[in-house]
Amino acid sequence: MNRIDARGKSCPQPVIMTKARVEAGDEVIEVVL
After folding, report:
1. What is the C-alpha separation between 23 and 33, in angstroms, rounded?
2. Are 1 and 26 in contact (CB under 8 A)?
């Protein structure tokens, strides 16, 4: 599982970070906001 720590990031940065992981082929992603 990949974890994206997006605490303190303003929109749309968390979405961009998540999109990059999805495009890299990661299947399980945990996003912490």
Report:
1. 20
2. no
Tens digits of per-residue pLDDT, 1-33?
899 999 999 999 999 999 999 999 999 999 999
Q: For the chain, which residues make up each domain, given as ranges?
A: 2-32
Q: Helix count (H) and strand count (E) of the chain?
A: 1, 2
- Two tokens, residue 23: 């495009």
| Both tokens assigned to 18 | 């998540």
pLDDT of amino acid 24: 96
Give the containing element (helix H, strand E) for 31: strand 29-32
